[in-house]
């Protein structure tokens, strides 16, 4: 299942700078691990804002919530989640379906 996730990050201004740096470093490690395992195929910075637009490829809303809440910055993230369905006019329908099946099979193998 694909989910569009729009994240707005608001780290409190009075947070100790060293603690904020540590949070960002840990966030990067966790985010990159999830990208490497294929469940976070798109991560884009929203130009001009401390925000991102992401696509997650997971089996369920519960799995998505577990991933999002594992992010070190989670307490400071406002996440808006939109489930995605295939658009009937999308020309890459078959490719997307094949990719989705392959990545679902890969995820099953990893478990
Ligand atoms: O910077 C952000 O957008 C928040 C978060 C998402 C990935 C990551 O490394 O940090």
Q: In one word, what is the shape?
A: globular
Counting DSSP H or I runs of 4 or more residues, the number of helices is 3
What top-tier CATH class fits best?
A: Alpha Beta
Task: Give a list of the ligands.
Answer: [(2S)-5-oxo-2,5-dihydrofuran-2-yl]acetic acid
Strand content: 15-25%
- What is the CATH topology assignment? Alpha-Beta Plaits
Q: Can you put this structure into words, describing what you see?
A:
This protein has 111 residues and is an alpha+beta fold. The protein has one domain: Dimeric alpha+beta barrel (Alpha-Beta Plaits), CATH 3.30.70.1060. It contains three helices and four strands, in the order E-H-E-E-H-E-H. It has helices at 17-36, 61-70, 93-110; strands at 2-9, 42-45, 51-57, 77-84. A four-stranded antiparallel sheet has the order 2-3-1-4, with no helix packed on it. The longest helix is centred in the first third of the chain and has 20 residues, at 17-36. It is globular. The two termini are 17 Å apart. Residues 7, 9, 27-28, 31, 43, 52, 73 line the site of [(2S)-5-oxo-2,5-dihydrofuran-2-yl]acetic acid (MUC). Residues 7, 9, 27-28, 31, 43, 52, 73 line the site of [(2S)-5-oxo-2,5-dihydrofuran-2-yl]acetic acid. It catalyses: (S)-muconolactone = (4,5-dihydro-5-oxofuran-2-yl)-acetate. One of its GO terms (biological process) is beta-ketoadipate pathway. Keywords: Aromatic hydrocarbons catabolism, Isomerase.
